[in-house]
Design brief:
The chain is α+β, with helices and mostly antiparallel strands. The protein folds into two domains: 2-87; 112-142 and 175-465, Porin, CATH 2.40.160. It is built from five helices and 20 strands. It has helices spanning 2-26, 32-45, 50-87, 194-197, 265-268; strands at residues 93-94, 99-102, 109-126, 135-149, 153-161, 166-175, 182-189, 222-230, 236-243, 256-264, 274-287, 315-328, 331-344, 349-362, 370-371, 376-377, 395-406, 418-429, 434-449, 452-465. The strands form two sheets. It has a 16-stranded antiparallel barrel. A two-stranded antiparallel sheet has the order 15-16.
Length: 466
């Protein structure tokens, strides 16, 4: 009986001691004074020894010191963070989406932008003498600055660098405070042609079609003027511009009107899984005269040009363009038709026309990037960027285009200016900044140019843009 009572007392002492230890370690509600009072009582009742008491009090003291140190460090860190934030409240930051800086509130920004296209071209002809030589050439070297000011205004300053000089490629200021009606003034791309409005960074082939290659004359390109444009609803866009000239082969006496409307019919109908683009471009204005060969090149950038000699007097120039495009998943069909008329003040009315049809397949499955606010196609972002360490392949594209230009209705004084081209293209988009393009181009002339009836080209491009 005595042994049993002693055993019970011993068990009770252990249970109380264990419970006390757990309570003091796991329940932060116990204050240090309460913990010491409990331990003193247990020591007085003989439930724990002096050694156990001393060990526990030492542990409690160390825990209290650690807690106080952590709390002080946390308070110091918070104070430093608050001080830094207050000190740099008005400071800017490096932009996450490019090379540049912006203010803390994002109202002001300056971002570097540029592109370089390095080409290798090789040619062969049917008939005549080889007027071309295989060569390396930089097709474009442009660098500039873009950004926004007070959120309501955007700007662009873009220079084009050649071997001998640097010229303004684009320079404009845009009011963007009201998306349905924006206003731009300066030198910029005129609103005409889906192919022309697609950036050279994003075009499906190395060069634009036969008609599109005559920038500034047949197809309005980058000119000085003013433009009102916008997107009243998603899928619908418009633009109306006044241009002071082409800076190419013709000079405009009065401001020339250039306008475009486009619509994504699928988007307007509530279907975002497919793009069904239609667009119409129109231009009218007075020109003085054209007394030199048009600046046309063929799609391979060879020596044989569709137009060898053109003479046009003062005339009212009218240009129209019809755009069609369908894009679904990895596939895209695109076509444009152009008509040009020169109603001379004295002399006959001269005409030219042309068109292109093209198909593109994203082999790696990426969808085509279409902007419902501007009615244009943009850069294809690879599903997996190229990486030797991670095994990414980038995006691969295969395309075909047929284009034709016809100036035989009085505009082509020599050679009748009738030509067509077949282009096969293979593109590799490594990542968001790098693209490699390979084009096989065959250009046929209805009447031989310099005894050449057909020109073939194999062109390769390495492109970087940011």
């Amino acid at each position: 009986m005595k042994k049993t009572l002693s055993t019970l007392i011993s068990a009770k002492r252990v249970a109380v001691a264990v419970a006390t230890v757990f309570a003091t370690l796991s329940a932060p509600a116990f204050a240090a004074e309460d913990n010491k009072a409990v331990m003193d009582l247990m020591l007085k009742k003989g439930l724990i020894s002096q050694q156990e008491y001393d060990q526990h009090m030492k542990l409690a003291e160390d825990a209290a010191e650690n807690k106080a140190f952590k709390e002080k460090r946390l308070d110091d860190d918070m104070a430093k963070a608050n001080k830094y934030m207050l000190k740099n409240a008005e400071a800017g930051s490096v932009m996450k989406n490019g090379l540049g800086i912006q203010s803390a509130d994002g109202a002001y920004s300056a971002q570097l932008t540029g592109r370089v296209s390095m080409d290798y071209r090789s040619f062969s002809q049917s008939g005549g003498t080889d007027a071309n030589q295989a060569k390396f050439d930089y097709r474009r070297a442009r660098f500039g600055l873009r950004g926004n000011m007070s959120k309501d205004f955007e700007y662009m300053l873009f220079a084009n660098f050649t071997d001998s000089a640097a010229t303004a490629d684009e320079a404009y200021l845009t009011y963007v405070g009201f998306k349905p009606a924006q206003f731009r003034v300066g030198k910029f791309k005129m609103p005409f042609s889906l192919e022309q409005l697609t950036s050279s960074n994003n075009i499906d082939f190395m060069e634009r079609s036969l008609v599109g290659s005559v920038e500034g004359e047949f197809i309005p390109a980058k000119q000085q003027g003013a433009m009102l444009f916008g997107s009243p609803v998603s899928g619908l866009s418009y633009a109306a511009a006044l241009s002071v000239g082409t800076n190419k082969s013709a000079t405009v006496d009065k401001p020339e009107f250039i306008g475009r409307v486009s619509a994504n019919l699928a988007e307007l109908a509530g279907n975002s899984s497919v793009v069904t683009h239609v667009g119409l471009g129109y231009s009218i204005g007075e020109i003085t005269s054209i007394s030199s060969a048009l600046t046309a090149t063929n799609e391979g950038r060879g020596a044989t040009k569709p137009f060898t000699s053109v003479v046009v007097g003062a005339a009212d120039r009218t240009r129209t363009g019809l755009e069609l495009a369908i894009a679904y998943d990895a596939y895209k069909l695109q076509a444009e038709r152009f008509d040009f008329k020169y109603d001379q003040v004295t002399g006959a009315t001269l005409k030219a026309d042309g068109y292109y049809v093209q198909a593109l397949w994203n082999i790696t499955g990426e969808k085509h990037n279409y902007s419902n606010s501007s009615g244009t196609f943009g850069w294809i972002k690879p599903t997996t960027a190229f990486s030797t360490s991670k095994g990414g392949l980038g995006a691969w594209q295969l395309g075909y285009r047929y284009s034709k230009i016809d100036g035989s209705d009085g505009l082509g004084a020599t050679g009748k200016a009738v030509a067509d081209s077949n282009t096969i293209g293979l593109n590799w988009i490594a990542n968001s900044n790098v693209r490699v393009m390979l084009n096989f181009v065959t250009t046929n002339h209805a009447v031989a140019i310099s005894s050449i009836s057909q020109e073939r080209a194999v062109n390769l491009r390495a492109q970087v843009s940011f």
